Every structure is written in C-alpha cells, then in structure tokens.
C-alpha cells in the first residue's frame, strides 16, 4: 500500500513543485503557466512563509502542492492586519481526483491554525473550497481586486488558537506584487 506524506516544501522540492504546477495549470497558449511564475517570485518576498508551503508525496513523488502566503488587510481605520492567501493549489494530472488536493489544502490550513493565523482568502472554485469552510469573502467584509468575480472570492476564519482573540479583520486585502501577474 502506497502512503501519502504531507510536509512543508524543502529546498530540494523546487523542481518537483514547478512540474506539479506546470502540469496542473497547463494551457496550450503559454509555455509556463502564471501559477508557476507566481510561486517562483513569491519565494523571494516577505510574503513567503516556508512552513506554509505544503507538498503531498505519493510513493515518494511530489504530486500536490498548496501555498499560503502573507497578505495584509487594510481596514478603513487603523493599521493593516495580517492574513493569508491560499494559492496556487495544484495536483499532478495523473493523481487528480483521488483526494490529494483536499489532503494538501487541509494540511496547509492545519499548519496555519497551529501558527495562530486567523484569516485565509482564496480565489477558486466554491464547490471545492467550501468543504474546508470557506464562504463569500464579502460576508466577512473583505474586498480585493477579485471581489467583482463574485462567489470565487472566498474567505475562511480559522479556529481560534487562543481565547479572547480579536474578531477577524475587515477591509481591502492587499496582495504582494507577484500576484498582480496572475
């Protein structure tokens, strides 16, 4: 029986992660999907949180990836608050639809919860992300350049890591510069 192994991405995984994302997001009109470039560029920014770049291995092969990076929420008043953006999430085409995407996303969200993170935003398929508790970001008072897309703009409040935690931030979600290319 082949087992799954979920773990943070290591330095030796860069090529495997690129292959997974290139396969998952392949399009005939581009040689390198923007999701691959996004991850490459995020690695060199303050938004990169190495413990929240998760891979899933099947039989020793990296077959899935989920990335959480730092974003900021700018409220109408007061200072920016930290939050996370989920994405890209990808699974190698030959291992899709067998639960690897669900497993790696859950591992990333669990790791974020353990680190005391509070809010995660994602732009993606509601049918997939709702299984983790994501809902319309507008319901949490969060806006972004993607707010106009409606249901795919989603957010999740993670379980509190400590009692007495402040309510989740509301306002405009500010993404690091590499996101502007997606």
From TrEMBL:
**Enzyme class, broadest EC rank:** transferase
Q: Map out region (Disordered) in residue numbers.
A: 159-182
Q: Which CDD domains match?
A: NAT_SF
Q: Which molecular function terms from Gene Ontology are attached?
A: acyltransferase activity, transferring groups other than amino-acyl groups
Alphabetical UniProt keywords: Acyltransferase, Transferase
Spell out the PROSITE patterns in the cross-references: GNAT
Q: What's one Pfam family the UniProt record gives for this protein? A: Acetyltransf_1
> Record's InterPro entries?
Acyl_CoA_acyltransferase, Bact_Acetyltransf, GNAT_dom
Q: Tell me its EC number(s), please.
A: 2.3.1.-
What residue ranges carry the coiled-coil annotation? none
Q: Which residues form the N-acetyltransferase domain?
A: 4-163
Name of the protein described by the UniProt record: N-acetyltransferase
Q: Which organism is it from?
A: Micromonospora profundi
């Amino acid at each position: 029986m082949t087992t799954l192994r979920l773990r943070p991405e290591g330095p030796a995984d860069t090529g495997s992660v690129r292959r997974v994302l290139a396969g998952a997001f392949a399009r005939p009109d581009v040689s390198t999907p923007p999701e691959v470039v996004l991850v490459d560029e995020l690695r060199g920014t303050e938004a990169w949180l190495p413990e929240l770049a998760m891979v899933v291995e099947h039989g020793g092969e990296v077959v899935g990836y989920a990335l959480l990076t730092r974003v900021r929420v700018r409220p109408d008043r007061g200072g920016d608050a930290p939050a996370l953006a989920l994405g890209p999430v990808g699974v190698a085409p030959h291992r899709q639809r067998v639960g690897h995407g669900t497993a790696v996303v859950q591992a990333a969200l669990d790791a974020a919860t353990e680190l005391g993170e509070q809010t995660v935003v994602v732009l993606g398929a509601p049918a997939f992300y709702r299984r983790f508790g994501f809902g319309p970001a507008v319901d949490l008072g969060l806006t972004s350049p993607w707010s106009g897309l409606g249901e795919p703009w989603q957010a999740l409040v993670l379980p509190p890591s400590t009692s007495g935690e402040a309510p989740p931030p509301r306002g405009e979600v500010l993404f690091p510069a590499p996101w502007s290319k997606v």
